């Protein structure tokens, strides 16, 4: 038996859990679950009704059980897993935690369950092996008018452009592996969720999204409103980029397409479509961070702190190593670069996407010249 944040689980922890494990439990996802619990708590605080929650791909049921135990304002949690061993384990784990009410355990194909329970849930959690793509349409059907979602993806090689055709097949975008590929990947994932919901006249508003270790997690609000979807179409577009000088620019789907880099006159590349808006909301992330702080969940709280600081800067991040390659000089120290960019009057922050990366609205010419100047003064 093990315990995660006070939830008891009748499970052996494997070094590297796989699809074939009898029942899947991954201790490396505790941070993901900590943030999800706090985010659902913050969402629930703003709702007038108690929430119906679905943990659609439950495994041991640890997420669903944690939502039930740790989030106030829940009417009911349905925990589902199509695998018979997982179904039995979820029931055992509920017993271990003496949870008898406000919970239902099912063993169905998640797509069938969600399609049958049309508009049945205020919150759906999708935490699959690999890609969530095949579950997103039925998730859209099963969400209520006003609702919230948490979606994990672990197929990063497809999302960030290593397997280009897989990305096109599963997510509807053409991408290329760039030095800021995790930001591209998460924006492609958000775009595909936005599109799948838009078919059902539902608009997705990302509240807290991040890349961590081997996965991406996107969490946000969903509202049924045709006008809202139409208004938010401005957040879908393409990214033009220059491989020679590092220039990058988002443009709308119907905007003029920049084919020549305005900085160095090289031909530009283009990827997308992807989400070009903010990938979270500062006030929401701040409240999640406060909740994590209160609980003393330091790793998750530090991540939320970075997300809060960087979230208003939309332009994809710059890796100082990549800047070094472009200038042909050693990479400069990230903290110092941020300081020098700020001294020129631009905003600049560290990014959670990369330990040597920065987010800034400064134009590439300035970033390059600041970096060269720093090398001269060394
Ligand atoms: C990554 S695990 C879930 C981990 C769990 N959410 C957690 O936080 O520990 C994915 C689970 O989805 C289940 N699963 C896979 N395909 C499914 C489907 N079509 N319908 C329902 N469950 C499915 C698997 O049996 C597996 O237990």
Total number of helices:
14
General shape: globular
The CATH class of the largest domain, by name, is Alpha Beta
Structural class: alpha/beta
Topology pattern, helix = H, strand = E: EEHEHEHEHEHEHHHEEHEEEHHEHHEEH
As laid out across the biggest beta sheet, the strand order is: 5-4-3-6-7-9-8
Question: Can you walk me through this structure?
Answer:
The chain is α/β, with parallel strands linked by helices and 378 residues long. It folds into two domains: 2-232, Vaccinia Virus protein VP39 (Rossmann fold), CATH 3.40.50.150; 317-378, Phenylalanyl-tRNA Synthetase, Chain B, domain 1. Helices cover 39% and strands 23% of the residues. A seven-stranded mixed sheet has the order 5-4-3-6-7-9-8, with helices on both faces. A three-stranded antiparallel sheet has the order 11-10-12. It has a three-stranded antiparallel sheet with strand order 13-15-14, with helices on both faces. Helix 1 (30-45) packs across helix 10, helix 1 (30-45) packs across helix 11 and helix 4 runs parallel beside helix 5 (136-142). The protein is globular. The chain starts with a strand and ends with a helix. The structure holds S-adenosylmethionine (SAM). S-adenosylmethionine is lined by residues 24-26, 29, 33, 57-60, 62-63, 80-83, 86, 109-110, 127-129. S-adenosylmethionine binds next to helix 2.
